[in-house]
From TrEMBL:
Organism this protein belongs to: Nocardia caishijiensis
Keywords annotated in UniProt: Disulfide bond, Hydrolase, Membrane, Serine esterase, Transmembrane, Transmembrane helix
Record SUPFAM superfamilies: alpha/beta-Hydrolases
A family per Pfam: Cutinase
Keyword Amino-acid biosynthesis annotated: no
Transmembrane segments: 12-38
InterPro entries found in the cross-reference section: AB_hydrolase_fold, Cutinase/axe
Name this protein carries in UniProt: Cutinase
Coiled coil regions in record: none
């Protein structure tokens, strides 16, 4: 007698369950793959594609060299002609730019004198003296110097630059040069042939990395008025102290000239004191017209009797003579 066949439990279908499970696993795999594809893979950065090659020539109306001249306090005006400045006919910077303009043709050298208000209002004058504040004057001068450099570099990418400034103009020239040396300026550092600042209010008289070469025999041991009065901040006058990092990459090309006894750049600490801010600022304003500060055209910098302005002319002339002659198209 054969045993009776075992009856299957109703509704139990192993093949159907496996199919459902397989479809579920497949769906999960598809979801995970889509997740990865949509979320994106982490890609290590590859080599940066090369930028456009440097130009091999520039426009025929571009100068080989641009001399940027920045006059001192009371030696310029906002509406002055940068190519024929007349705001102050005895501006110290004219004794530098005029000989250079006469020496080189216009296609070799463009001389641009930065026009700016160039004033320094006395904050304790009663009644007010009606002048622009030092902060506003310096801001305008810096903006105009930066703008023309950026504009010329965009138009004439192969032009090189010589920068020089006196007094307030030296502070502006030094500030622009420091930005260029830090890689944040309007032109690349390798386009700048050299910088000279005469009577720089941010002079430190220090040596070492980032510092300029001092011209003088010997150079004075004092410091700039803005360094001596660092931290002083009264309406319209901010003493910014030394330049952080100095002149950076440009430092080997920067020269500083300061006449001994010129309180603008050779201030003894006892003469200018942040504790006596208003009295010190009044003394600083008076010193802008003192004989030492006003006589850089006759102050000598070496035993041969070379004056500060003669030295600057000779220095700039040599740079311009040896500057590249970029092709023009």
């Amino acid at each position: 007698m054969n045993p009776r066949p075992t009856r299957r439990t109703r509704g139990f279908r192993p093949a159907g369950c496996l199919t459902v499970l397989a479809l579920l696993v497949l769906a999960i795999i598809v979801i995970v793959l889509l997740w990865y594809l949509l979320a994106g893979r982490l890609r290590e950065p590859g080599p940066t594609p090369p930028g456009p090659p440097p130009p091999t020539s520039q426009s025929a109306d571009c100068p080989d060299v641009m001399l940027l001249s920045i006059p001192g306090t009371w030696e310029s005006a906002s509406n002055d002609d940068p190519y024929n400045p007349t705001a102050n006919p005895i501006s110290l910077m004219l004794s530098i730019t005029n000989p250079l303009r006469a020496q080189f043709p216009e296609n070799r050298l463009e001389v641009y004198t930065v026009p700016y208000v160039a004033q320094f209002s006395n904050p304790i004058a009663i009644p007010p003296d009606g002048q622009a504040s030092y902060n506003n004057s310096r801001t305008e001068g810096t903006a105009r110097a930066t703008d023309i450099l950026a504009q010329r570099h965009q138009q004439c990418p192969l032009t090189t630059y010589v920068i020089a400034g006196f007094s307030q103009g030296a502070v502006i020239a030094g500030d622009v040069a420091a930005q260029i040396g830090a890689g944040n300026g309007p032109v690349p550092a390798d386009r700048v042939l050299g910088v000279t600042v005469l009577a720089d209010g941010r002079r430190t008289a220090n040596t070492g990395p980032g510092q300029p070469t001092e011209i003088g025999d010997p150079p004075p041991t004092g410091e700039g008025a803005e360094v001596a009065l660092r931290g002083v901040n009264v309406p319209g006058i901010t003493m910014t102290g030394p330049r952080e990092g100095g002149f950076g990459e440009l430092a080997p090309k920067v020269f500083s000239i300061c006449a001994p006894g010129d309180m603008i750049c050779d201030a003894p600490r006892e003469a200018l004191n942040p504790v006596n801010a208003l009295g010190s600022l009044a003394a600083l304003i008076r010193s802008a017209g003192n004989p030492v500060h006003a006589l850089y055209a006759s102050n000598t910098v070496d035993a041969q009797g070379t004056t500060a302005t003669q030295w600057t002319v000779n220095w700039a002339s040599e740079l311009i003579q040896n500057a590249p002659h970029p092709p023009h198209s």
